[in-house]
Amino acid sequence: MKTILALDQGTTSSRAILFAHDGSIVGVSQREFEQYYPQPGWVEHDANEIWQSQLEVSREVLQQNNLSAADVHAIGITNQRETTLVWDRKTGEPIHHAIVWQDRRTAGECDKIREAGHADLVQRKTGLVIDAYFCATKIRWLLDNVPGARERAEAGELAFGTIDSWLFWKLTNGRVHATDVTNASRTMLLDIASCQWDDELLELFGIPKSLLPEVCPSSHLYGETDPSLFGTPIALGGAAGDQQSALFGQNCTQPGMAKNTYGTGCFMLMNIGDEPAPSKSRLLTTVACSSGDKREYAYEGSIFIAGAIVQWLRDGLGIINSSEEVEALAASVPDSEGVYLVPAFAGLGAPHWDSYARGTLIGMTRGTTKAHIARAALEGIAFQVADVLDAMKKDSGVCIEELRVDGGAAANDLLMQFQADIIGVKVVRPKIIETTAAGAAYVAGLSSGFWKGNEEIAKIWQTDRVFMPQMPKAEAKRRRARWAEALERSKNWVSE
Ligand SMILES: Nc1ncnc2c1ncn2[C@@H]1O[C@H](COP(=O)(O)OP(=O)(O)O)[C@@H](O)[C@H]1O
Ligand SMILES: O=P(O)(O)OC[C@H](O)CO
């Protein structure tokens, strides 16, 4: 049986998923790995643990399904984006833990770069807002804080990579140092129009060019796995950052098509075609996946806390025992009775970008119960998404006809219905919810000839359930206006 093996290297776990030619899932294996929080606001990963967990699940999914490397036509990689790693080219050893996308250690540095007047240059070239979220200031931190790192980097001894690059390096035993263009577009060092590393930005951030990987299309033959890993070499057919991969996996290949992933955070991406138009509403412009050399772009609204608020109800407040339970609890009341929960626990991302906002629970009375709070938590996710959708409509001038959804919290019917109600747009959940891994499988399957073209892949995507807006428009408007007031109260709460 021929399959495509998708490696889905996420923030909290490594997964390996086998896809058959009809797009169905043959098997899944998953391992969590440790999160390191050395200081408040800092988040790190051990890149060797990432590699070991990824290798183990890859071998395990084959074994569990009685398959071998010979049954894998190609491998596709999808990964947590922006997480930054530097390693020694000779030994392959990381010089430090990877600095994770959520890490805020370079926020002060970003404030300075913004204050020095570089925001327009950075947005024009990279499509990004200056924020600690992206790689550039994380790389500089590593070069300036790991003893000897800057000298070694200047001598060409070190390599930088996002997690796709790290996996390519390990899978080929150091023969390939490359990244795909969607991951490269999150470094804040790429000119997204030419898709080349930009010398002016490298100088601004003090980063030697010799550190950087080669930038390749997402759907591209990068090499093959070292024979020592799986017995027989397997073709490496492509890679994509997880959110762009999900956009491709949702088959949003035409301008105006949008998806939203409800995981730890929420990431809404909309295909905007072949021009990297800058956003006027503080969204990001990012490189999207495409099936060949053709460039495609997307607007992205990144929301830092979404499903994580449900984990907080479970672990922080203890009012539910599992994430799934939130739906029944929230459904036990008809509405939140005026309670609003702004989940700005890690500041606010798009379109507000307020690092100093904090979580706010407001509107409670003596009648408020845990059910109202659970409901307000789910509604807070949907209101944030509505704010991003508005910004997208405004920037693109496109009337979004449907929002395709995926991610763990997209299983929550109450949340999906409320989402449709509050945005007044139908919400469509596909049958194959593993769209992130599917996107990686597709880019690898296309470059290696497993699938013939986009048309063949488009047939795989099928609707599971459609949520139509039911709430009267005036009521949705009233609730959004109240949300906007609650949001204002959460802003600029802490000073650093
Ligand atoms: N039924 C549910 N209702 C609401 N949230 C849920 C539900 N099931 C899972 N979640 C949330 O979804 C998140 C996990 O989704 P997942 O897509 O695996 O995230 P990630 O890739 O960011 O780790 C968790 O934050 C969890 O609380
Ligand atoms: O690993 P996830 O699914 O939380 O995704 C992380 C994003 O890529 C961060 O930009």
From TrEMBL:
Sn-glycerol 3-phosphate binds at T11, R81, E82, Y133, D242. Its EC number is 2.7.1.30. Inhibited by fructose 1,6-bisphosphate (FBP). Keywords: ATP-binding, Glycerol metabolism, Kinase, Nucleotide-binding, Transferase. Glycerol binds at R81, E82, Y133, D242, Q243. The keyword ATP-binding applies. GO terms for cellular component: cytosol. ADP binds at T11, R15, T264, G307, G408, N412. Residues 259-446 form the Carbohydrate kinase FGGY C-terminal domain. GO terms for biological process: glycerol catabolic process; glycerol-3-phosphate metabolic process. Key enzyme in the regulation of glycerol uptake and metabolism. Catalyzes the phosphorylation of glycerol to yield sn-glycerol 3-phosphate. This is Glycerol kinase. It comes from Roseimaritima multifibrata. The gene is glpK.
